[in-house]
Every structure is written in C-alpha cells, then in structure tokens.
Amino acid sequence: MKQLVSSAIVLKRTNYGEADRIIQVITPDQGKMSLMAKGVRKVNSKLAGSIELFSTIDVTYIPGRGSINRLITARLKQHFSNISKDLERANSGYDFIKVINKVTEDEVDEQWFDLLTNSFKYLDNSIIDINLIRIWYYLNIFKLTGHTPNLNNDKDGGDYSETGRYSFDLESMSFYPDDSGKYFAQHIKVLKLANQFTPTKMTNIKDIVPICELLYSLVRDVSRVTLDI
Predict the structure, then answer these.
(1) Alpha-carbon gap, residue 24 to 26, rounded angstroms
(2) Which residues are CB-neighbours of 189 under 8 A, at least 6 positions away?
(3) Which of 57, 154, 171, 226 has its CA at a distance of 20 to 30 angstroms from the CA of residue 16?
(4) What letter would DSSP give residue 183?
(5) What is the pLDDT of residue 84?
(6) What is the secondary structure of 9-38 as a DSSP string?
(7) CATH fold of 83-226, please?
(8) pLDDT at position 50, please?
(9) What confidence tens digit (pLDDT) does each residue in 24-35 have?
C-alpha cells in the first residue's frame, strides 16, 4: 500500500494495548488525523523520541481502512525544548493545543498548523512576555473562527478618545465609554497591533507587560463566550 508523507504536530497521545499508542496530529496539507504508532512504548522504540509534544515532525504513514492510519516513521524536525522548562509556558502550550483541537474539524487548512507552530516558537523565547503571546494566539483563533472583536470603533460607532475610559461589552464584542472603565485607548491600540503583528515585533512597546496582563483577562473572557472554553 502506498506510503504518504506529511509534516505534523502532535495534539494528543493515547495509550493502546500493551505497547502501542494512538497519536492525533494536525498537518498543513492533510488536516487532522489519527496515527497508530506500533510498539512506541517499548524501551527500544525508534518512534518514541520523535512524537514529542511542542515539536514539528515529519511522518510517513499508510492510510487505514477506517479512521486510523498506520505510522511507519517519524522524524523530529524541530523541538521547542524551552517550553517544557517553564511550567507557565508549558501550561499555555498545552492550552493552545487543546483549544485548536477543540475548535477545529478534521478538515483544516495550513493556517491552523502555522498558528500552532508559531505559538511554540514564541513560547520557546523567554524574552517575549507570555501574556503577549497568549493575546496574539487568541486573537488569531478569533480571526480564524470568525469571532474577531470590534476594535475599530466603540459600541456606538464613535472614535476612541486618548483620554477616555472604556469597558468591554461581551454581547456586542465592543468597547464602550465608561467613566469607571479599566481600559484606555492604549489598551485598545495594543489589541489592534497584536491583531496585525507578531509578538516579536511588539516586545519593545512601552509598558507592554502590565498592559498585556490586564488584556489577557479580557481575551480569556471573550474566548469563554465565543468558543465555549
């Protein structure tokens, strides 16, 4: 039977039988799929070291008759090892994987694979503030799922004031003027920038760390409403 090759990222690993494991992966060209890794839990398995989380790999597999394909070989392309050295970054990495796995169907395009790959790259870089990475990640998730908040104007269609205070309305997904609000134009500007640029390019923005600490709480609230996570 014909063998196929694809790049992949491991989303989930499930033990099967005495020595096997079923791994679910996302690929840039074949969507999401499940692969049976025969004997991978044996001490001398050549596959074991190549199907780690927080990695990009090349897999060779044989299509199965059902929903599970058979993994033949796996080659580690890049392992983002720094993520696992920091508990907070590792937990975010797990969350990123779970979210993508939940909000996508089996037929997904390359954008989702690229988002997860880049998320690992940024988490691997300890210089980049973790909340900035989280905000960037979720804004991309919102964009891909069609839930992007309105950042162009306030709830009533007005322009943002540099001196005004704002709160966020989860129903309309918009900011609105509020004298006791905790958001300012600077916060909204950072969200706009994170929707356009990478975390690497935004790292040197003044006061980016405290701004992102506040904004991440908002982004999580939006994700609970729009994505049910």
Answers:
(1) 7
(2) none
(3) 57
(4) B
(5) 96
(6) EEEEEEEETTTEEEEEEE-SSS-EEEEEET
(7) de novo design (two linked rop proteins) (1.20.1440)
(8) 87
(9) 999 999 999 999
What pLDDT score does 79 carry?
A: 95
Question: Does an H or E element contain 88, and which?
Answer: helix 87-103
* Helix/strand/coil for 152: coil
Q: Whole-structure pTM over 0.85, yes or no?
A: yes
Per-residue pLDDT, 226: 92
Q: Beta-carbon neighbour count of residue 12 at 10 Å?
A: 14
- Looking at the chain, the domain(s) classified CATH 2.40.50.140 span 4-79
Half-sphere exposure of 6 (CA within 13 A, CB side): 23
Instruction: Find the Cα–Cα–Cα–Cα dihedral 217, 123, 101, 208, rounded to 10°.
Output: 30
- The domain 4-79: what is its CATH number? 2.40.50.140
In the chain, which residues have pLDDT < 70? none
- Portions of the chain given CATH number 1.20.1440.120: 83-226
- 3-state SS string over 50-78? HCCCCEEEEEEEECCCCCEEEEEEEEEEE
